[in-house]
Amino acid sequence: MDSRLDMKQVIQSIGCGVALVDPANWELVFENARFFDWFPPSGEDEGRLPQRLAGFDTDKAAQRLQQRGKYSTEAMAHSKGRELPVRIECRHLSMEGQDLYLIEAQDISKEKETQFMLDSYSRLAEKKNKEVEKEKERVERLLLNIMPRQVYEELKDFGTTTPQRFDKASILVLDFVRFTEMTISKDASALVSELNDIFSAFDRIVEMFGCERIRTIGDSYLAVSGIPEESSDHTRNIARVAVRMRRYLEKRNAAHPTQWRCRIGINTGTVIGSLVGIQKYVYDLFGPGVNLACRMESLSEPMRITVNQATYELIKEEFAFIPRGEVEVKGFGIMPLYFLEEELKRSY
């Protein structure tokens, strides 16, 4: 049997498309059945490769073949009424002293399907990761809203927190005058909305001076300075917060019909900070330091800031005070109290 004929029969029967092209004019000098079926001529004179392969760039192919000896591209073949992705590879071939281009066309539909599935899984995984990250950030914001960042970091790393004693802390307690009566006599939902605006403004003031909002209970607001990180300026910072809270309310009252009047108490002393609860976390302060701050608030007057002797001694050179004399403080006995008026302007 003629070996050339055998080889031709083998090439005709393989599963990929094969063609030989004359480099001079890109004329097809041979093609197997698969190549003919995939890229059939649409007219009698379509014997050149560019006319059979839509979009095939002969200039680019010739340049790449000259530089690298190989050129690859992709095309769409026609098979049984549907389009089929194929990879076209061209290389030089010398046959019986004649230079030719060998064109191979491989079905890459499975490869494309696999790549599509991988891309789909990748996009799905990326979307899920973004959703998880977004949910994680939302949970982190919620937790940071109820506990200091240092406590949150400890909870995140170890799953629990250790109660801490802070000997140098300043506690501020604020409460609004006649709030219960206001909710009865006015539109309660509108009033609570205003309260939310005010507390949001207080939060910004507290953050401005490096203090921590611990909690709000109804119309009460508790903030602290000097925890969880110690600060030598904790009393000065909490006093500045109190003065600016009152100033904010004065400006708000001048521009709004509803008049908000607060009482503020400040104490400087020892507190215990701890996370309490299992399913509903709450970071809270305990100890006589908090109780005395609450007493200062209850003994204060509308739009006044009341402090005790310990607080006064620490910042008396930086703020203006009005002595209130000695007052009986429930659970703590008789002690001198002061109204904190304003921060003194520095001469430098």
From TrEMBL:
Residues 118-145 form a coiled coil. GO terms for biological process: cyclic nucleotide biosynthetic process; intracellular signal transduction. The keyword Transferase does not apply. Keywords: Coiled coil. It holds the Pfam family Guanylate_cyc. Residues 170-297 form the Guanylate cyclase domain. GO terms for molecular function: adenylate cyclase activity. SMART domains: CYCc. It comes from the Bacteria. This is Adenylate/guanylate cyclase domain-containing protein. It comes from Aestuariirhabdus litorea.
